[in-house]
Every structure is written in C-alpha cells, then in structure tokens.
Amino acid sequence: PLAAWVLGPLAFGAFVSSAAPGADPSAWARLSVALGWSYFAAWSVSFYPQVIENRRRCSVRGMSLDFQLLNLAGFACYFAYTAALYWIPAVRQDYREANAGRPSAVRLNDVFYAGHALLLTVVLLSQAAFYFDYPTLHGADRLLRFCVAQSLLWSAVGGAGLACAIAASSEGVMTWLGLLTKVSAAKVLTMVPKYGSQVWWNYRRRSTDGFSIIRVVLDFEGGLLSVAQLLLDSRLLGGACFDVLWQNPAKLLIGSIALIFDVVFFLQHFYLYAHQSAPEPKECPMDPELVGLTPETSPGPSR
C-alpha cells in the first residue's frame, strides 16, 4: 500500500534519530538527523517501485532510457562530491578555508544515499538492457538520444582530463575542491534534462503506463525532507537562512528541482493521461504477443 511506502521512511528516520548517538543531543539536532535519514530512506526506496514494475511487466517501455543514463552520470558525480567532502580530511580542510571556517553541510546520509542511488540506477539500466523493448527512435527522440550520449561522453572525457591535470600539477591548475564543486554542479545540471526526458517520454506516449507513480510520491517526499534538513542545518550552524545556498547548494537545487518535476508527473498521471493509460498485464508471460509488445500492438511514440 502507498501508506506503507510513505510512512516507512519517516519511521526509519525517527528510529535512527532516537537510537544513534550524536555529538549534539539537542532536540533540533536530533530532528535534523531524523529528517536526513528519512529523506535518505524515501529517495533510496523510491528506486524499488520502478524495479518491481519493470520485473512484473517484463517491459521497460514506461521508463525513459535517457532519464536513467543521465541519472547514472549525475549520481556518479554526486557520490564523488559527497564522499570526498565527508571522508577526505584534506578536502574538508580546503572547504573550511574557502568558507570562513564553516564545516561542510554534507552528512553521512548524503553519502549513503548517493552510493545507493548509483547502485540502483545500474540495476535499472541492467533491466533496460535485459528487457529492451523500446520502439525505434525517430525525429526528435533520436536527436535527444544523440545529444544525451554525446554530452555524457565529452563530459567524462573533460572531467578525466581535468583530474589528470590537477594531479600532474599538484593542484596548480585547480584544487581538488574546485573540481569537486564543478562535479556537484554537473549533478545539478543533469536534473532538468533528466526529468525533462521522462516528461517528454510520457508526452510522446500519451501515457504514464509503466512509469511507477509510487516512485514519484517517494521522490516528492524525499525532496521535501531534504530541503527541510538543509534549512534546519543552516540555522544550527549559526548562519542565516540564505547561508544554506553556500553550505550545500547542490543538495538544495536537487531537492527543489525534484519537487517541481514531481508536480508535473502528478499532473500527467492523475489529470492529463489519467484515462489514456492502457491496462497493465497481470503476469509476465514469455510470449510478447500476450503483453502487447508486437509491432502491430505496440503503442510506440506518437508521430
């Protein structure tokens, strides 16, 4: 049931907050811990409904492949950024020096979330490869795939080249913190095209069939809790509310953009295409004719 998916992360966050010892025993600090682990749980669990949906249908047609490719790149960047700021002392010290002695707002739950999300995105892409049943791309869809592939390729080449230059020059070209800041910006930059590709895919199909709405609900919940924790942490660190922009801008933008696009998904699912989604198969038969995946019955993208 939907209630279990939604309430489960909140219960998990409350449990961790009450059970895990912390350096600051105040109620506000414990609330921050609860918010952090709740958003971690909500966003982490949000991947599983789509995995289950794909497996149940033996189909990935409702899931935008461009969405998942951009997700892979984005979470790889975000994991590198959060892991370095949390675990590497030299990077943490560089951050303090660059921010008037203020510590990074990155928390352990941020690192765990990024790593788990990266792993689950690999699982979803593996499903896409195994169940691959997408229609042949034409026109705008083909152009979109080309742009996504080229952007990811040249971004990876550029990032690797810059890292080599930093290592070879002993941070003479740029500091590792500077590179990590650019990496975190790359995660944010993937957000709009990532969500936009799924919005476009739903629009082309005139349906949200196969795209789990439970995933969207959990994504929305995680976005709210993430932004709430960041605002609270800004106050706990002694800054004004607007200081949050300098504490962890990637986290703020990721949460805010997710909330905006989740509202668009809600509109598509419950209003725009509410009466246009085809009935979903109850089983996962091996015969493609039984799940409507033959060329004659395939809905395909609208022309």
Outline the structure in words.
By secondary structure, this protein is mostly helical. It has 11 helices and no strands. The chain has helices at residues 2-19, 27-45, 47-57, 65-87, 89-98, 108-130, 139-168, 176-205, 213-236, 244-247, 249-272. Helix 9 (213-236) packs antiparallel against helix 11. It is globular, with a radius of gyration of 21 Å.
Give keywords.
303 residues; 11 helices; 71% helix; mainly alpha
Average pLDDT value?
Answer: 84
Helix content: over 70%
**Sheet with the most strands, sense and barrel status:** none
Strand content: under 5%
Task: Count up the helices.
Answer: 11
Shape: globular
Could you list the spans in which at least 5 consecutive residues all have pLDDT below 50?
A: 287-298
Distance between the termini: 36 Å
**Number of E-state strands:** 0
Summarize the structure.
Helix content is 71%, strand content 0%. With 303 residues, it is mostly helical. The model is unreliable at 287-298 (pLDDT under 50).
